[in-house]
Specification:
Layout (H helix, E strand, L loop, with lengths): L4 E5 L5 H10 L12 E7 L2 E11 L2 E9 L8 H14 L5 E6 L1 H10 L2 E2 L3 H9 L11 E6 H5 L8
Parallel strand pairs: 4-5
Antiparallel strand pairs: 1-2, 2-3, 3-4, 5-7, 6-7
């Protein structure tokens, strides 16, 4: 079976579908109001996933990542994060951060994200937490983009 997969920047006419995806995984739709760049995942021209990222100079923060339940476990979330990495790299970002809860920490580790150890960086990021989809999280992770492209994490296993 052939599936047409597309990851692209969201346009205003996508927002109702993005809201539906966010609601389907229990996330608030408030992120659509911030300054995030939103990418959508389309399967056969239907939006089944979305993610938001905010870039600030050489750093980026993944604000949310959502794949509709019926399309999870198909590497779409992985593909969307890798699209964020490429998107950020083209904008000269050096590090990408994400707030993660228990159920998704291994997901980000598999891609190459590592726990933030620098308490100053962590405290600075936590001040921005209110704009992410996670009110409760267990850990802050970071990905060094240069390291990502220079090791096996950038390639699917």
């Amino acid at each position: 079976m052939f599936i047409l997969l597309c990851i692209r920047k969201a346009v205003s006419s996508d927002y109702n579908k993005v809201e539906d995806v966010l609601k389907s995984v229990g996330f608030s739709t408030k992120y659509l109001e911030d300054n995030s760049q939103i990418l959508v995942v389309e399967v056969d021209e239907n939006i089944v996933g979305a993610g938001g990222i905010t870039i600030d100079n050489e750093n980026a923060l993944i604000r949310f990542l959502a794949i509709s339940p019926e399309h999870q476990r198909q590497l779409l979330g992985d593909t969307l994060v890798r699209a964020f990495i490429n998107y950020s790299d083209r904008r000269n970002v050096k590090k990408i951060y994400v707030f993660a809860y228990d159920e998704i920490t291994n997901f980000f580790k598999r891609i190459g994200f590592k726990p933030v150890k620098d308490s100053i960086v962590k405290a600075s990021l936590e001040k921005q937490k209110f704009n992410t989809c996670l009110s409760k999280y267990n850990e802050v992770f970071e990905l060094d983009i240069d390291d990502f492209f220079n090791n096996k994490s950038c390639c699917h296993k």
